[in-house]
Write a structure and sequence with these properties.
Blueprint: H1 8-14, H2 16-24, E1 28-29, E2 32-33, H3 43-48, E3 51-56, H4 58-75, E4 79-83, H5 84-87, E5 98-104, H6 110-121, E6 125-130, H7 136-139, E7 143-146, H8 159-179, H9 184-195, H10 197-205, H11 208-217, E8 223-228, H12 232-247, E9 250-255, E10 272-276, H13 287-299, E11 303-309, E12 321-325, H14 334-351
Parallel strand pairs: 3-4, 3-5, 5-6, 6-7, 8-9, 8-10, 10-11, 11-12
Antiparallel strand pairs: 1-2
Bound molecules: 5-amino-5-deoxy-1-O-phosphono-D-mannitol.
5-amino-5-deoxy-1-O-phosphono-D-mannitol (M6R) binds near residues 106, 155 and 241.
Length: about 375
């Protein structure tokens, strides 16, 4: 039930610190990541994989895109992320060196289920990252790594998304340990980052009111753009998806490096643009690039709303609004930066008097093609 919340979505957004903590629980013991559900595959199987193909749809696919950066960096395995419906109709190259990882909150998305079945027929092993115990996709997989976000009722996925990233990060760290690609110290540092996330999400949630005010001021906006780089890129895509589905506003996410290849032509005076800014400490190479992107769009009249690390002063002269997120390792910023984008879309939907939990034309789980 909704408890005292105005919507299931508001409740589920607020539950995100617990969703992450519950997904971690039992999988980090004495600082060491171990996912018992993977035992049935065996460490030898995990050592012999040559590549990973992630299949998912919608928000789950964006969780997959975020995890690509982490798994490749930590476990040094190539990861490709594919929309399930694109994957299954193009005769993808799959063999017994491929591990297919499906991501699905419901575990019932038809295209993702069919992608898993196809991959297994080709000899691949399949792992399901799923939030619903006993759903079809985990049953049709070789192993299931459940997210423990609790039931997600609102059509827009929120707590399942952060739980999916958490489960995939645990998987990446488990792989790195088994494959010996990170030192013990490096592993311990990443584990500590992950364990600190629930509290940091709580800090971000405390700014919800301000983000809500912003959404109310912007309730007659017709189009919003989202920019990000590296792990901030899928977060830009997710911010845009949330706004489309909840507030019926035209929204697009771009990789910030693409601006000059086309999207900057969209910038005209007053155009709102959310920018996910990488950490100046953790992403020293990327931070100045994103700041210069902000300058470029600002010079053309964009109204910039920056999501930036606490203490990052470089964005101040150019951003119209700054939403702060706590310091975190560069790979962990998505778990924080997505939260204001969820709240923005939810509040804008409410400001327009729309049904936040049941947007038009959408179903919670897409069990048809
Ligand atoms: O149940 P699944 O995770 O497989 O669902 C995938 C998408 O349908 C889902 O994430 C959808 O994009 C959400 N409505 C996004 O908020």
């Amino acid at each position: 039930e909704k408890g005292g919340w105005s919507s299931f979505m508001a409740k589920e957004v607020a539950e995100q610190p617990d969703a992450v903590a519950n997904t971690i629980r039992g999988r980090i013991v004495d600082g060491v990541v171990s996912i018992p559900e993977l035992d049935q595959l065996g460490d030898d199987a995990l050592r012999s994989i040559r590549r990973i193909t992630v299949v998912a749809c919608g928000t789950a696919a964006y969780a997959g895109m975020v995890s690509k950066y982490a798994i490749e960096q930590w476990a040094r395995i190539p990861v490709e992320v594919e929309l399930s419906h694109e994957f299954r109709y193009r005769e993808p190259v799959i063999d017994d060196g491929t591990l297919v990882v499906s991501i699905s909150q419901s575990g019932e998305t038809m295209d993702t289920l069919m992608a898993v079945k196809y991959a297994r027929e080709q000899g691949a092993k399949a792992i399901s990252v799923c939030n619903t115990q006993g759903a079809t996709i985990p049953r049709e997989s070789d192993a299931a790594v459940y997210t423990h976000a609790g039931p997600e009722v609102a059509v827009a996925s929120t707590k399942a998304f952060v739980a999916q990233i958490t489960a995939l990060y645990l998987f990446g760290l488990h792989l790195a340990r088994v494959r010996g690609t990170l030192s013990e110290d490096e592993l311990a540092a990443q584990v500590a980052e992950l364990q600190a996330i629930p509290e940091k999400i709580t800090t971000v949630l405390e700014q919800g009111e301000r983000v809500g005010e912003l959404a109310h001021w912007m309730s007659d906006t017709r189009s919003v753009l989202f920019l990000g780089r590296h792990v901030g890129y899928p977060i830009a895509l997710e911010g845009a998806l949330k706004l489309k589905e909840l507030a019926y506003i035209h929204a697009e996410g771009f990789a910030a490096g693409e601006l000059k290849h086309g999207p900057i032509a969209l910038i005209e005076p007053g155009q709102p643009v959310f920018v996910v800014v990488p950490s100046p400490r953790g992403s020293a190479a990327l931070h100045p690039k994103v700041v210069s992107n902000i300058q470029e769009i600002r010079a053309r009249g964009a109204r910039v709303i920056a999501i930036a690390e606490a203490g990052d002063a470089a964005v101040l002269p150019f951003a119209d609004e700054v939403i702060r997120i706590p310091l975190a390792g560069p790979l962990f910023e998505p778990l924080l930066a997505v939260v204001p984008l969820q709240i923005f879309a939810m509040e804008l939907s409410q400001a327009k008097g729309l049904d936040v939990d049941q947007p038009r034309n959408l179903a919670k789980s897409v069990t048809v093609e």
